[in-house]
């Protein structure tokens, strides 16, 4: 038996395994120039204020303090588009200013309530800092802040489907997958000056063969859900503790179940801890309408403001005031616990595997800060503890792991997703199964247009490009997702029907050679993402034609 | 009598008071979902997810159902019921279920009436035929499972119950005398595995760029002396 003291940090200075933290940041494209205040645009404001800016702040402080770390960060093309859109940026700055004003009034209002006052001051700091970062430090360009961290070697930014389309159900037209990937890569290149190394399959929705399209763009790796890799054929020697190469050479990394549960699980995971801030008790609902009016929608529809004074306290509706210092202590405790678990996991694996395992831990970025208020602090503590307090595990990006282990087993993961039940049901059920016939038909028509009008110019080209945009927007996996799970299902249904209708209109116009310029210009103004889009990404010559019966069949036993 | 009147009066006050109190509190606490969605409940442990067990029903929704008109904020569009085609498409939902949707146009119906006689349509029953086409390179039309459906459906969830198999679904009609009228055949759809693979032969790959580096280094001494030469004695095979 190894002496306990030596088996810990003191004796073993050698890394025994790796932790790949992957944050996936995505929002559907929501931009309504026709309305001054649109409810769903708040998703964007909240995510920027509560997640993206705090995370950037955390990473930059780590960099300044000389802490080495690695995080893989996915910025979806629709999110990048919104972060780069002038109208949304202006609206966001205005939103922040109003929030700061509200925070100031809250500080006043709670002056004689010590149990709330400290929290009010905390929000004032948070929003002021967000404003400083957004307007002064980053000069309204948040995407470049990510690029700086990538250039410093601490963050690896990857990309995902252009509008986060759900590949396994969209892929009846291979051209549709090609277009999602090609457009995404183009957006990435225009912001980061190079091609992405990694790809986040939307919802980890994997259909065997899609990686061949990723390969065309030089992508080296993608991610699948745990059972996607466990059920790979042939059976992977290392489970999901090492990647496999798909036959085309693109690597697949599988999600680790243990680290995922510790953070994601509502009952067992950290975010549910009673000392953490409660999400639902927002002053937008609690305070008097006269007071809160200017800060909620149209002065009458109660919404979240972001200012919440209570902690989870327990499983009932009874909530006690939030105490920041207790919450931070918990976050530190949980960070230590997470690290300890990863150490033990890796130590155990190192005994039975003949190589250093990689633990892949992907999370939605919005979990940190927005849903789990203390998330960014937990992350900060975790990264510092990993760097200062131990040597068993080291943070790594998937790309770096492939450099250490360039020789890997060849296997094809099985079709899967990280959605509820592990396959496609979330996006294919009674609430949303009706959309697929429209998406497939529109996809077919777009391919027809792209093949027919090979080298369009002028108005025709604009119409074709806009048709491509409308189709991409209709393909967002967010719509069927919200239709199944969300309170905003009316909105999602409207968005879907609107984009399909616009697409169909453009299709018919183009076929009749009678493009309505006025209407086209209106659409271009409204649905203005991906300025450099090229409709030719839908041409059939971009994709391999599999012979008839072999298309979409099981090839592996 | 007076007491019951008083009781009713009291109850009325309570009810009215309660209602006004509730409306003052604003909208009920609807749990907002971020578009990233229900991620806290990904592991299937959410309370709200349990309500959606009903989504596994095999009954198809009625044809031509329209969505409720959405209030206010966005213009609303209705999508076409169909696109004037005759085809059936198959999607995989999970290792045990397929989803098919189809459309039959007027031309097809006319064609059938012309070929099989007037009334052939009304008299026949619509069916789906599910073929297991795993590892088959040609179409064997004798082995199938027939599912009777109804004239109102334009989609169906099919429980095939078999992971890691490839299927193809046909849409047809069966006449009272048993003859089958073929209408359309779907694409192939393959159900995913639901367990680890039985194949454990490993194949390993070193990517070309690394291989080049490797062979560039060792290739400089290739071909080297063979062991017999080194040992100095002839080998006997």
Could you explain how this protein is built, in words?
In chain A, the strands form 2 sheets. In chain A, strands 1, 2, 3, 4, 5, 6, 7, 10 and 11 form a 9-stranded mixed β-sheet that branches. Chain A has a two-stranded antiparallel sheet with strand order 8-9. In chain A, helix 14 crosses helix 15. Helices cover 48% and strands 9% of the residues of chain A. Chain A has a domain of 123 residues: immunoglobulin/albumin-binding domain-like, CATH 1.20.1430.10. With 557 residues, chain A is α/β, with parallel strands linked by helices. Chain B has a domain of 104 residues: Immunoglobulins (Immunoglobulin-like, Sandwich). Chain B has 6 helices and 8 strands; from the N terminus they run H-H-E-E-H-H-E-E-E-E-E-E-H-H. In chain B, the strands form 2 sheets. Chain B has a 4-stranded antiparallel β-sheet with strand order 4-3-6-7. In chain B, strands 1-2-5 form a 3-stranded antiparallel β-sheet, with no helix packed on it. The C terminus of chain B is likely disordered. At the A-B interface, helix 2, helix 11, strand 12, helix 17 and helix 19 of A face strand 1, strand 2, strand 7 and strand 8 of B.
- Mean of the pLDDT scores of chain B? 71
Mean pLDDT of chain A: 92
Our measurement of the CA-to-CA distance between the termini of chain B, rounded to an integer number of angstroms, reads: 119 Å
Q: Share of helix among residues of chain B?
A: 10-25%
Quickly give the CATH architecture of the domain at 87-190 in chain B: Sandwich
Rg value of chain A? 24 Å
| Helix coverage percent of chain A | 40-55%
Largest sheet of chain A: 9 strands, mixed
Helix/strand class of chain B: alpha+beta
Shape of chain A: globular
Task: Supply the helix-strand structural class of chain A.
Answer: alpha/beta
The top level CATH class name of the domain at 428-550 in chain A: Mainly Alpha
What's the name of the CATH homologous superfamily of the domain at 428-550 in chain A? Families 57/38 glycoside transferase, middle domain
The amount of beta strand of chain A, in percent, is 5-15%
Give the class-level CATH name of the domain at 87-190 in chain B: Mainly Beta
């Amino acid at each position: 038996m190894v002496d306990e003291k030596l088996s810990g940090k003191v004796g073993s200075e050698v890394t025994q395994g790796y932790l790949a933290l992957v944050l996936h940041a995505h929002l559907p494209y929501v931009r309504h120039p026709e309305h001054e205040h649109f409810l769903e645009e708040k998703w964007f404001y909240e995510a920027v204020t509560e997640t993206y800016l705090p995370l950037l702040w955390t990473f930059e402080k780590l960099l300044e303090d000389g802490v080495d770390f690695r995080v893989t960060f996915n910025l979806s093309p629709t999110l990048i588009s919104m972060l780069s859109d002038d109208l949304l940026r202006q609206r966001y700055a205005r939103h922040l200013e109003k929030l700061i004003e509200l925070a100031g009034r809250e500080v006043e209002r709670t002056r004689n309530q010590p149990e709330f006052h400290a929290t009010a001051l905390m929000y004032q700091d948070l929003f002021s800092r967000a404003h400083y970062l957004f307007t002064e430090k980053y000069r309204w360009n948040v995407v470049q802040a990510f690029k700086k961290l990538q250039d410093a070697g601490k963050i690896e930014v990857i990309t995902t489907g252009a509008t986060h389309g759900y590949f396994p159900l969209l892929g009846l037209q291979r051209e549709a997958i090609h277009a999602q990937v090609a457009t995404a890569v183009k957006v990435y290149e225009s912001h980061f000056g190079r091609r992405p190394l990694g790809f986040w399959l939307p919802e980890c929705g994997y259909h065997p063969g899609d990686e061949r399209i990723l390969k065309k763009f030089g992508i080296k790796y993608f991610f699948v859900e745990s059972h996607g890799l466990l059920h790979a054929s042939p059976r992977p020697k290392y489970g999901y503790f090492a990647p496999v190469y798909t036959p085309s050479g693109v690597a697949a990394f599988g999600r680790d179940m243990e680290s995922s549960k510790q953070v994601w699980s509502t009952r067992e995971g950290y975010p549910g801890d009673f000392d953490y801030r409660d999400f639902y008790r927002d002053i937008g609902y609690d305070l008097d309408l006269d007071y809160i009016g200017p800060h909620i929608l149209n002065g009458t529809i109660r919404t979240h403001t972001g200012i919440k004074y209570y902690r989870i306290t327990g499983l009932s509706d009874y909530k006690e005031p939030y105490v920041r210092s207790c919450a931070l202590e918990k976050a530190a405790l949980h960070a230590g616990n997470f690290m300890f678990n990863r150490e033990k996991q890796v130590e155990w694996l190192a005994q039975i595997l003949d190589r250093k395992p990689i633990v892949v831990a992907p999370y939605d970025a919005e979990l940190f800060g927005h849903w789990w208020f203390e998330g960014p602090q937990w992350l900060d503590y975790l990264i510092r503890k990993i760097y200062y307090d131990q040597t068993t595990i080291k943070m790594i990006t998937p790309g770096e792991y492939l450099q250490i282990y360039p020789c890997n087993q060849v296997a094809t993961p099985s079709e899967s997703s990280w959605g509820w039940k592990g396959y496609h049901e979330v996006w294919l059920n009674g609430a949303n199964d009706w959309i697929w016939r429209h998406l497939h038909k529109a996809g077919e028509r777009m391919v027809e247009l792209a093949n027919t009008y090979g080298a369009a110019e002028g108005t025709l080209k604009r119409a074709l490009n806009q048709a491509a945009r409308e189709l991409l927007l209709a393909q967002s996996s967010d719509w069927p997702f919200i239709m199944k799970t969300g309170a905003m299902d009316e909105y999602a249904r409207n968005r879907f029907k609107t984009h399909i209708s616009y697409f169909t209109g453009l299709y018919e116009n183009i076929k009749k050679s009678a493009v309505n310029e006025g209407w086209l210009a209106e659409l271009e103004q409204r649905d203005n993402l991906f300025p450099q889009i090229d409709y030719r990404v839908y041409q059939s010559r971009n994709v391999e034609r599999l012979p008839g019966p072999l298309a979409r069949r099981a090839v592996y036993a | 009598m007076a007491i019951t009147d008083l009781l009713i009066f009291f109850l009325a006050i309570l009810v009215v008071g309660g209602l006004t109190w509730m409306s003052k509190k604003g909208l009920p606490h609807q749990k907002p979902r971020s578009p990233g969605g229900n991620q806290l409940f990904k592991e299937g442990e959410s309370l709200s997810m349990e309500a959606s067990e009903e989504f596994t029903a095999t009954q198809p929704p009625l044809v031509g159902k329209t969505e409720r008109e959405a209030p206010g904020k966005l213009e609303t569009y209705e999508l076409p019921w169909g696109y004037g085609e005759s085809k059936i498409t198959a999607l995989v939902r999970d290792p045990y279920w397929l989803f098919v949707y189809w459309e039959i146009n007027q031309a097809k119906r006319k064609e059938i009436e012309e070929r099989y006689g007037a009334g052939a349509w009304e008299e026949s029953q619509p069916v789906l035929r599910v073929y297991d086409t795993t590892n088959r390179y040609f179409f064997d039309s004798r082995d199938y499972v027939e599912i009777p459906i109804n004239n109102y459906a334009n989609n169906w969830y099919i429980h095939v119950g078999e992971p890691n198999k490839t299927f193809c679904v046909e849409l047809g009609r069966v006449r009272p005398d048993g003859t089958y009228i073929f209408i359309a055949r779907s694409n192939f759809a393959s159900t995913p595995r639901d367990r680890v693979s039985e194949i454990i032969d490993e194949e390993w790959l070193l990517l070309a760029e690394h291989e080049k580096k490797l062979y560039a280094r060792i290739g400089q001494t290739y071909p080297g002396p063979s062991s017999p030469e080194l040992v100095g004695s002839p080998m006997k095979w």
